[in-house]
Amino acid sequence: MSEVLVRDYLQTQGLKLAAGDVAVARLAAETVMNMGQAEIDRSVLWGNGNEACAADYFTCDETTEQILKQIFMALDSTWEQSAAQSAAVYVLLPEQAGLLRLSQQGQPIEALLKLDEEAEAAYLPSRTANRGWLNLVEDTARWLESGEISGEHHARNGSQMSLPVCLENGRVLGVIQVEAAQKNGFDETAQALWVALALALAAPLTALLGAGEEDE
Q1: Is residue 102 a contact partner of residue 71, using CB atoms and an 8 Å limit?
Q2: What is the pLDDT along the chain (216 residues), one digit of tens a residue?
Q3: pLDDT, tens digit, 9 for 90 and up, residues 105-133
Q4: What is the pLDDT of residue 1?
Q5: What angle separates helix 202-209 from helix 62-81, to the nearest 10 degrees?
Q6: DSSP 55
Q7: pLDDT in the model for residue 148
Q8: Contact, 130 vs 120, CB < 8 A?
Q9: Does the predicted model carry a pTM greater than 0.85?
């Protein structure tokens, strides 16, 4: 993905970040995905059967497992550079009208989210998936008080960020949800890291969903 496409994402999402910094971080994430040789327990990739997981929705073959491994390694690498308390990558399942968590780091985050009106009011990933817009909440308590979001689960974080993973035409493929313990937990450096991951994950999520050339 060229720096032009990075600039397009930043402009579309209303982010005033240095495109060059995002492009470098995106390249680093892609390198991890393409060159990483980590040994990852299959239960981490496919799930353990205790909650909704990739094995429930995707064919358990080597190709899919490699994609899941790429997603895990990219999230893990970005997570290690961040100060977030939790992060998760969701894939959008159009036929099920929901978001499935493929990978997570830190404190547990919901495994399966609906996309209906009630879910959109309570969960930022659902809102981001439906609207295609990045949501940055610098003060979760204030958003709760104002009614911008609802739900007791928001008590677990002080700030949060939900980023769409999209094709060039704007089609949403998935969502990254990141949460910090404190308010104002996402400075420009942190934002650039997670935006870079959102850009890097477009390729593996496209492959996972079989989006095809007609959608690009």
Answers
A1: yes
A2: 467 889 999 999 999 999 999 999 999 999 999 987 778 888 889 988 789 999 999 999 999 999 999 999 999 999 999 989 999 999 999 888 899 999 999 999 999 999 999 999 999 999 999 999 999 999 999 999 999 999 999 999 999 999 999 998 999 999 999 999 999 999 999 999 999 999 999 999 999 998 443 343
A3: 999 999 999 999 999 999 999 999 999 99
A4: 47
A5: 150
A6: G
A7: 94
A8: yes
A9: yes
How large is the angle between the packed helices 202-209 and 188-200, nearest 10 degrees? 30
**Torsion angles phi and psi, residue 162, rounded to 5:** -125, 120
Domains of the chain as residue ranges with CATH: 3-215 (3.30.450.40)
Helix axes 19-35, 3-12, angle to 10 degrees: 120
Q: Give, as one character, the DSSP assignment of residue 195.
A: H
Number of H helices, E strands in the chain: 9, 6
SS3 169: coil
Distance CA 73, CA 143 (A): 32
Place of tokens 């390249």: 27
Contacts of 171 (CB under 8 A, 6+ apart): 211, 215
Q: Which residue reads 């399966």 in tokens?
A: 112
